[in-house]
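Exercise: predict the fold of this chain.
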Amino acid sequence: MYATGFLSDRGGLDQQLLWRLVGKKTVDMTARMLEEFMEAERAEWLGAGSYERTTRRRGHRNGYYRRTYDTCAGPLRLRVPRVRGYGFRSVVFDAYERRQRKVDDAVLAWVARGMSARKAAESLAEVFGTVVSPATVSNVVARLDSDIEAFHTRTLAGGYRYLWIDAKHGYTSHRRRRRGRGKKLKRALFVAWGMRWDGREELVDFRLAPGETEEAWTGFLTDLEARGITPESASGGQSRGLEMIVTDGDGALEAAKLTVYPTVPHQRCAFHKVQNIAEHLDDRTHRRAILSDAAFIYKDLRTIPEALRRLHEWSARWRDLEPRAVANFRTDFEWTLRYLTAAPAWRRRLKTTNPVERLIRELTRKIDQVGVFPTDTSWERATYLTWLNLKAGGYAPTKPKPHFTHRS
């Protein structure tokens, strides 16, 4: 009977109009079901039916009021029952709530994938039929601030075995008194990625700083230490402390590490060590050959003596052609071999900063889309949303791996 008026000129159903009808019927049915549920809630709370005289009555009905409520099915226009006095509240929605939480979750997911507030508002109208302003979308995202604050202050005690630490550079806008954005300011986002003793990996924390200075890195690491990430020697003899820190070789970070975690072994990323050769070449025509030859030193490496033998052979082949590059690569070379002292199951992950690089790549996409973040807060929100999006996609393990729970 619903087909009348929806036939196309060719005698078939018009698909677009058909689904529009289905959507409208779904919205109407959802609204009626919620109204019936709220009516039953009011009767149960009052303890009496309409016009029923009983000593169990807790109050009296006081008519209805209208409320627009946005849901995944579409915007609903509801008759919400009222009770004279205070105490009754429906479980259908919270006080002053105008949208189903799944709608807000969809907004957060879209923004995490790089969608602007304006685009998210347009998508809400297209997908759910919900008309909101970009400012409303921004307010939804702003509710993350309390979650971010809790994330930054939560206790970190409980067994982080390895830490990967890196930074991502970008810009935020310097506010001016006159209208519009001001001059862009350089910012560095410090990121700490961790592996627990049961094999789970997760984002430990992040922080925005003016730059990669020793003072800024020291503050970041000191906060991690104060919140519970302590060396194995300080873990009360329970063998559940920090065993190794992996970095990309930044000098300021290395100095801060020696201040805060002087007893924790430091692994310098082997990939960054090899790539750094290119900055010291006198002749870049053989760049690919010398880097590939240096990378072979770490291929299927098992022992430190074997690494030193390969380094000697590599140096002999390239010393005459690229003396500066060879000398630079040999400097602190042993720092790139600390992973060989770790449990065999984790050596491959500890050789480089790759575990944190996936998050860095996702942040890079976001930064490329935004360009300059209007505030530091907006960058923090984007970082937190990127992490939530990665976690929801199953990137970081959420369950312990039984065969890795014991120390090797």
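Check your answer against the key: The first strand starts at residue 61 and ends at 71.
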